[in-house]
Amino acid sequence: MAAVAQMAAPAPARRRKPWIVSRAVDLSLIIGGSAAGYVYLLLFTVFHVPASYLWWFWSVGFDGAHIFGTASRTYFDAEARAAHPKLLYGSLLFFFALGPVMVLLGMKGWLALLVGVWAYYHVIRQHYGFLVLYKVKSGDLASLDNVLDRVFLGVTMVAPPYYRFFVLHPNELGLRFSLANTAPAMWAIVGATVFVWLARQVARYVGWTSRSAFRADRNAAGASALPAPGAPSTLKYLLFAAVIPLHWLTFRYLSWQAAVPTVTIVHNLQYHAIIWLHNRNRYGGEGGAERHGRIPAAVSRSLLAYVAAAVLFSAVYRIPGYALGNVSDLAFGFFCGFGLTHYYLDSRIWRVRHDPGLRAALDMA
Length: 365
Prior knowledge:
By secondary structure, the protein is mostly helical. The chain is built from 15 helices and no strands. It is globular.
């Protein structure tokens, strides 16, 4: 849901609920989903569970399943297929052909790097999307804070893998060069970013409490009431506290094979939460099957049906994809198409600002 971050609505005239889905879902999946990442981190580092077990549990049960979430509102949605045939079928053909072509050109390593870098960017963009939704919900939309929040999230999440793979252990990615000389500049950027962001939060809090006290004094004195000043988004801070330390710890202790499921399982849980909200609101009403098709309607009415369909979809392509990819580079390139198509479509189908139907489905209208 990377492009949900492109929403830049003005502060609402009436107070919205602060939650994207609900208190329980937000705290357990969107913010609290990071707990799954910390569990994976412990299982890898403390209990030394074999990576293959944890990888398969994540790959089939969560990651491949969340790609079904995208398919449920695109390829399985008759209305979406009719409205966006070039986008859907064009991206399908392009990305499923791209992998085999790169393999034939002797660029398998570059293909793997493309998938890995885009996947990580995809994770960051989704966290940013949820950040923006929380900011919109709370009216935390001052231009300066929008910029600082975006830079803070980007810098603090890009720095950990950069430091591990380009400074400390470039051999883990098969790189024959090191950028160790850039480490001081990297730490200077991280330090400056954190300092400026924290200083702004302190200044906002002091200013907010001062305005609140002034408003209370005026109201107590019988003066005309002043509007309540906007407070920084508390849920924004909870999201930062949940995901940023996880990425620093993950890339401190784990190489990419173990880091991938550790940071991505959080992304998967968040995605399932937002997909369930979207599908339930868009497809769950009367006439959903006639307008959109039986699959979207069926999986929007029952959480059990959604889970079963998503895991089945995942197993059908992930298990043979892994087996065939180990014996054929062309098969590896072809099955990369699932992830690449998902990353691209996800950047196009969550543009809340330009899609009134999407705003309604996400309770943002």
